Model the fold of this input.
Amino acid sequence: MGINANEFKDIDPGERILMGPGPSNVHPRVMQAMSAPCVGHLDPYYLSVMDEVKVLLRFLFQTRNEMTISVSGTGTAGMEACLANIIEPGDEVVICVNGVFSARMCDIANRLGGKVTSVEGEWGRAMDQEKVRKAVKGKGPKLVAAVHAETSTGACQPVVDLAEIAHECGALFLADMVTSLGGMDVALDRMGIDIAYSGTQKCISCPPGLAPVSFNERSMEVIRKRKKPVVSLYLDMGLLKTYWDNDGRAYHHTGPINMNYALREALRLIAEEGLEPRFARHLLNHRALVAGVEAMGLSMLVPEGERLPTLNTIRIPDGADDAKVRRALLEDFGIEIGGGLGELAGKIWRVGLMGHTSSRRNVTLFLGALETVLKAEGVNVRPGALEAASEIYGEAS
Ligand SMILES: Cc1ncc(COP(=O)(O)O)c(C=O)c1O
Done:
């Protein structure tokens, strides 16, 4: 069958300001690194890149964990890798569920044959710790898991306290850090988190395709003592270790070479900025956005004190058409934001301020654009959003 190649035009998506739940905007240096020549997956040059990725990821996760690598696949592959390596059929698992991604953890844990207890929490709120403590005490689980930054609701979970609850009964604690790593203080060793995973496309500001993961020694010991092999060969940490370890270095799968170039560059940018200034930047832009949104007369879903600086959830005001507003922001201003998921569909907008996207310029553009679009829709918005945001930046300078 013939094909006319001229029908397929050059890829040209245009400029976008990515203020949705991810991916975030990617720094040009990261795209440039990605286009460096591809070498073999066991080429000494690529192996040195893998070594540097490990060092840089340990810096970002603030951990000494030897087994800190990038899994080939998106955040869900990280989630699956962490759960599949720990859970064996019949193992008791407790999962804190108050959003789409924690529900996905339950789905995977069930597929693995785990005996899953889901502790249900309110969407848009932090988990009730006493509820979790009660569930854990009754079960004596092997693993307790929670999502640090629930991208579907914008709520931050108290992972330090949850880790403590898990450890009180001898369980391992797993945290999903897909929307926190690179934008919030994620310090695995200090926070008592045994296992964590993330994704590259959120606060690390790299294209999607890799999942940073970290396992501490205690969790690696649990993996070594498994009765049965990990069901997934591709995500088996024991096998992956042979590919990522300095001594040995055996083929496991063909590493996504250029994706790891990109990740290395994105992590190098983070190291240049420094962790503290980076977290402070995310917090400041979040505060300015909230001040602007509230000055307009709109309200946030998550109460103050439980909000993520990286993902802001705004209640859709009466009279506004969710899809129409998002389309106008994209078509007229090139700004992408997200709609609600699951039970929050049609009720909230999700505005990401992650990594390279988190800037004063983008906060100001978004507030101006949202005000314009809502006014055109006939929604009653108060003036003063830009001034309110400006005030926050003024206080900080
Ligand atoms: C908190 C959280 N966990 C897991 C995932 C799954 O990641 P991915 O879509 O990269 O597979 C996402 C994606 O948005 C997420 O926000």
